[in-house]
Design a protein that fits this description.
heterodimer; A: 338 residues; ABC transporter involved in vitamin B12 uptake, BtuC; two-stranded antiparallel ribbon; 14 helices; 70% helix; 2% strand; B: 292 residues; mainly alpha; 1% strand
């Protein structure tokens, strides 16, 4: 074997997204926020529940976006972190009677620690290896949750039932509506945190690693620290989303958190546009509503529809919703000139 | 002692399947530097095809050969249509492509043949092999077919022009192109062969795990574990890794208390991660140096 055979140029994991292209203008953000605030007032409880799930999956996709779009690492194992968050919340609420709002930061911290620790071996892995390790994690997670000696806490195969909280201070709101606004508040806080994180010194370090790991380390970026940090933050946010998901669905069971969930979240990120944070909510809408439509046509079809759409996106609009948004913006600009 | 020998032999039998899956994964990895997450689903689909052929009255070995031909052509078609255009795309796009393929095949197998568990015949029978209680004829058959396959592949790669061209295309694509090898078609050929090898693994393991759309999930994870253990850059390593992982899985299940069937997947996960942490290049892989 010759020596040149063993030297390979570093593959680029994801296409670089400029920092300013990661968010949207304040005008658009304001309109979206207003819509999110007003719509539930005129909607039925089931619709409100779906909107809550939209925000929750949006958070999970956002978390993956920070990891992949920000630091250029892959994860096919987000469902595992989501599951840990959901179980943490469920166990704390049902076994220790802790207030639901307090369980969320705990779920976030537990998942941050879990992600940070899982990120330790992940340090040595890049690209396909990392995808492989996280894929294995996601596949193994349901079996880990079914373990016998955890059964007292996790309820084994049966899972746990979670009680839905009432609106506090006697507010005249249904449980669903209260949970929606509660979720919206948390989502906003985390979104603002994420935007600021990516604009900060740490965010620039993430992006330097994403664009060229060797160059980044040569310029003094602590690659090991920032890679695990990105993993931890991403896992932490996913954990909060998982906790909220457990409260909203009122039920946790091992088989809700299979590799299918991880694939959905990954798909949501690609649809929304890798590295474009507002796209997370579009991706989340996609993974919630498209399966419903597909299942309506034929049972078991959602996987095939997902797959075909994913291929179409890869071939036609590789930057997902961001690309469409940019094209739309340019069109509007042209119309204005005329 | 008999239990121990028994478990080793059973481990070699399942290890043969893991070796096939690992080999299929490594063949594609060598050709395009990506892991085929849909390898298990492709194998599952091929197995369903052979089952369908047998349902309409084709004898076992006829169905076996026809399925191999189908899988070979199918693998080439997938490469030509879906993955050739992605050659220069970033890793993320390729991973997304494999995930999409996984979802499409799994879901359409469910649509065509539904998700009920089906019996799958074995041509070897399941009586004790050569009167010994240690191993069944089907397990012996699994080992036998795999060994034949490995020998055939070895001779193909070592002693034919085509095999040499494929090796050249995998290790130094640019130089291979300069001497007139059509590397693009060599990659397609690699896909076809990987798909056929996967089909063999699927048809051999189906009598054990039963036929259903999710049957290859666990097998694929173990195949990955085997490929990583042997080194993703070494086909020989993948085979050795397969047998080692099979033996390890059986011994761990027998002798470590608390590890039963329910912990099979976590064990594979632990194995993958510990190999990647301790020896990322695997036992026989070569170490790749990255440059800017």
């Amino acid at each position: 074997m010759s020596a040149i055979e063993n030297v390979a140029p570093e593959d680029q994991p994801v296409e670089a997204v400029p920092k300013r292209a990661m968010t949207i203008g304040s005008g658009t953000s304001f309109v979206v926020l207003l819509l999110l605030l007003i719509v539930p007032l005129f909607a039925k409880n089931f619709i409100i529940f779906q909107l809550t799930m939209l925000l929750i999956y949006g958070l999970a996709v956002l978390a993956l976006n920070i990891l992949t779009g920000g630091s250029g690492q892959f994860s096919l194992g987000q469902s595992a972190f989501y599951a840990v968050g959901a179980y943490t919340t469920a166990v704390l609420m049902e076994h220790l009677n802790i207030n639901y709002a307090l369980t969320l930061p705990i779920a976030g911290l537990v998942c941050f620690a879990f992600g940070f620790l899982f990120g330790q071996p992940a340090l040595r892995l890049s690209g396909v290896y990392l995808a492989l390790a996280t894929f294995a994690l996601a596949t193994a997670m349901p079996q880990l949750l079914k373990l016998n000696f955890l059964e007292h806490w996790t309820g084994g195969v049966q899972g746990l039932v979670v009680t839905k909280p009432d609106a506090p201070f006697g507010l005249p709101m249904s449980q669903d509506m209260w949970l929606y606004y509660f979720t919206l508040a948390i989502t906003l806080a985390i979104y603002i945190f994420s935007v600021n994180l990516l604009r900060s010194r740490s965010g620039r370090a993430f992006m330097a690693i994403r664009d060229n790991e060797i160059a980044a380390s040569a310029m003094g970026v602590d690659v090991a620290l920032y890679k695990t940090l990105a993993f931890g933050v991403s896992a932490g946010i996913t954990g909060v989303a998982g906790g909220l998901g457990a409260i909203a669905v009122q039920f946790v069971a091992p088989d809700s958190y299979t590799i299918t969930l991880a694939i959905s979240l990954f798909l949501g990120m690609v649809v929304g546009g890798v590295g474009w944070l507002p796209g997370s909510i579009i991706g989340s809408a996609f993974i919630i509503f498209v399966p419903n439509i597909a299942e309506g046509i034929s049972k078991g079809l959602s996987g095939a529809v997902f797959g075909v759409l994913l291929f179409l996106i890869i071939f036609l609009v590789p930057h997902g919703a961001r690309q469409i948004a940019i094209v739309g913006q340019q069109l509007i600009g042209k119309l204005r000139k005329n | 002692m008999e239990l121990f020998t028994n478990q080793i032999l059973a481990g070699i039998a399942t290890g043969a399947i893991y070796a096939c899956m690992a080999l299929a994964v490594v063949m594609i990895y060598q050709a395009i530097d990506h892991l085929n997450f849909a390898q298990g689903e492709m194998a599952m689909f091929s197995t369903f095809i052979s089952w369908q052929l047998m349902q309409v009255g084709v004898p076992y070995w006829g169905a076996f050969v026809l399925t191999l031909v189908f899988s070979f052509i199918g693998g080439i078609a997938i490469e030509r249509i879906l993955f050739k255009p992605l050659t220069k795309a970033p890793i993320l796009t390729n991973v997304a492509g494999f995930i999409a393929l996984f979802a499409i095949i799994n879901s359409s197998a469910g649509l065509i043949w539904d998700f009920t568990i089906k019996q799958y015949p074995t041509p070897f029978g399941s009586s004790p092999f050569l009167g010994s209680q240690l191993i069944s004829t089907h397990q012996a058959g699994m080992i036998g077919v795999t060994v034949l396959l490995l020998l055939a592949l070895y001779f193909f790669f070592q002693y034919t022009r085509m095999g040499l061209a494929m090796r050249a295309a995998a290790s130094l694509p640019e130089s291979a192109r300069l001497v007139g090898i059509n590397t693009s078609w060599m990659i397609a050929l690699g896909w076809g062969m990987a798909s056929a090898i996967g089909a063999i693994a699927g048809m051999l393991i189906a009598p054990v795990v039963f036929l259903e759309p999710n049957m290859m999930g666990g097998v694929l994870i173990y195949g990955f574990a085997a490929a990583v253990l042997g080194g993703l850059t070494s086909p020989f390593g993948a085979v050795v890794g397969g047998f080692l992982v099979g033996i390890f899985e059986n011994l761990a299940g027998t002798y470590i208390p608390g590890v039963g069937n329910e912990l099979k997947l976590p064990i594979a996960l632990a194995l993958i991660i510990s190999v990647l942490v301790v020896k990322p290049a695997g036992l026989f892989g070569r170490h790749i140096v990255k440059r800017v």
